[in-house]
Amino acid sequence: MRAARIHAYGCPSVIVLEELDATPPGPGQVLVRVAAAGVGNWDALVRTGRSGLPLSLPLTLGAEVAGTVQAVGEGNPAHLAPAQAVYGSTTSLYTAGYAEYANCSAEMLAPKPQGLAPAQAASLPVAAVMAWQMVVEHARVADGQTVVVHGAAGNVGAFAVQIACSRGARVAGTVRQEKDEETARALGATEVIRNQADYARFAQGADVVIDTVGGRSQAALFSLVRTGGLLISSVSRPDPALALKGQIRTDYFIASVTTAALCEITKLLDAGRLRTRVGATLPLRDARVAHEMLEGTRPRPDGKIVLDVA
Q1: CA 64 to CA 10: how far, in whole Å?
Q2: Second CATH level (architecture) for the domain 2-124+276-308
Q3: I need a labelling partner for 92 at 20 to 30 A (CA). Which of 13, 39, 66, 234 fits?
Q4: Which helix (H) or strand (E) holds 269?
């Protein structure tokens, strides 16, 4: 089988296409014939050696897949069977997806939503589950609340806006560029926060702020949260001193793709409350080009980058 691999950490040029033998699935795993693989920021962290996980080289990149079950290992749960179309993540190491076959943890896969092409399904697992877990499982966003999504036009942020709207929240989104304002509103945001005047206008107006960007931009978000409100991130741990000063609650967690969460995403898709955004689809041989798009050395599309593996 073909696989996009790295033998050293570094820039996109370290990605090479190789021929490997597919291996049988282990206990609790299924062997998936990959039709499409999502390309995301996590893959870039793995490629550069900054994932923080106990990885060893060489390795095959890729955390998100859509395809068909080819074989099942011991202890496979009842929700998966040979020839079934599935989507989800690979394993707890979030690697091995850029390949024609991938052994995946059964607990990180779910039946593929009907009506979605493989590329659309592969664009979902990490970003959509991360958004779901922030909005629903951790923030417990409820009808009538005001929610600000930081990075509303990004891959995770776009899902967070839609999921918060599906919960009955009034949603505002922060964006960096004027062109992203229309995107945020099309996703369901009723207000857009783009400059200092917008931040001042919306000061202490949010019950919940969902941070999908992290880094230095997070500090400005504290001003948007009402007293007793919540700032949550799965990107950067919020500053406890700023939280104490503003008398707000904070939460930080590392997202984990699960069958249960994927099934919730499928429900939203089936109900028409969630839609995917595929920005570019490239052949597997162009995995290096996809990572150049991630880094901005080539134009980065709006929406998810996906590799066509079939």
Answers
A1: 21
A2: Alpha-Beta Complex (3.90)
A3: 13
A4: helix 259-270
* Exposed e or buried b per residue across 40-76, where buried means at least 16 C-beta atoms within 10 angstroms of its C-beta: bebbbebbbeebeeeeeeebbbbbbbbbbbbbbbeeb
Which CATH fold topology does 127-252 show? Answer: Rossmann fold (3.40.50)
Nearest-Å Rg of the Cα atoms of the chain is 19
Distance CA 49, CA 56 (A): 10
Kindly tell me the burial class for residue 240, based on how many C-beta atoms sit within 10 Å of its own C-beta (0-12, 13-18, 19 or more). exposed
Tokens coding 150: 């930081």
The closest of 159, 61, 60, 68 to 118, measured between CA atoms, is 68
In Å, what is the CA distance from 164 to each residue of 35, 131, 160, 206, 308? 30, 9, 6, 13, 30
Condensed to tens digits (0 to 9), the pLDDT of residues 173-192 reads 999 988 899 999 999 999 99
Distance CA 299, CA 195 (A): 24
